[in-house]
What we know:
CATH topology of the largest domain: Heat Shock Protein 90
Helix content: 40-55%
Distance between the termini: 64 Å
CATH superfamily of the largest domain: Histidine kinase-like ATPase, C-terminal domain
Radius of gyration: 24 Å
Number of domains: 3
Number of strands: 13
Shape: elongated
Number of helices: 13
Amino acid sequence: xxTATSIQPDKFESIADLIHSDLCLSPHVPAGQVVDLFNExxxxxxxxVEYEDRVGLVTRGRFMSRLRGKxxxxxxxxxxxxxxxxxxxxxxxSRTEPVEVISLATRRPAHRIxxxxxxxxxxAYRGLVSMRMLMAHSxxxxxxxxxxVSALEExxxxxxxxxxxxxxxxxxxxxxxxxxxxxxxxxxxxALKDPELSAHRQRDLEVMLRRGMDLLGIVNxxxxxxxxxxxxxxxxxxxxxxxxxxEDLAGSFAYLLENRPVELRSDFGGAPRMLSTxxxxxxxVLTNLLSNAVKFTEEGSVSLIASAHxxxxxxxxxxTGMGIKREDRERLFKKFSQLEAAATKRHGGTxxxxxxxxxxxxxxxxxxxxxxxxxxxxxxxLTLPR
Length: 386
């Protein structure tokens, strides 16, 4: 059986590089032998079983729990392990990038969040990747220690309540990742300002910055969702300079578009200068809307427009991107909902951004309206009370 080795993140180009076990059992192996296997390998969280042209999992936690019950071992010891195989698990192709697998893995139901991931090559079984290994790889990309990640995962994995397990995992992971991510993004931006930077180094830094921003977006979305659903996020209403907030946002996104054929346009003249609402929540809503607009616009423009109408402030984010099909519009505001598979694979993301936008907008006493024509662009308008 192949075992995990030390992490060397620069060598990991696909999820196949993170495989920690290539063991695949016959469905006829007695359950007692699987118990012995788990006892001999303390870090083995699951084993793969090939059964009727499909590959499924026998996970340590659920399998051992079943056999620990009254008469459980005596009942199952000599019976085939096929009776314990689970097929509703995450299966990915070996060429898939680790970052994409992280996004898929964290979207699983709470009781499967720590299950191993099955890796196939053109339909043939290749091996298993553990969540511990996957998260360790993610942490190493951010120059943090493997020991911290393992301890964090181990602490979360042992929690007894499934709902609490999910919340603990999300909260700890996002807080741990944000600080190194912000550091990487900040250093990348500073380095890109170096006038003596070679073209090769500039391209590398731009890739590093984009990947860092993508990961930070995932982290922020997951943390926001956790705070909203746990009741930890409530509006703090204060009066602030709306124009200053919008100018700051426009400047940040204009920087990201410097080397792309996309123009960022802004017009705040029709909006009041001062506004009373939660500026942190408002900035989060607009950041998500602008991130989507930038992500799905290959060329043309992204516009940030603010105005006033009938006692309300209207802030519109408009783009000339791919647009949204009519049948897709309603479900986009649901958690983990995304566009068609091709667009999702190309642009990534968690499918949380617009769900968070809608929930935060409602918490601010406002609403979001979507207008779009497929192939020509989209417009999201946030309406807030003055």
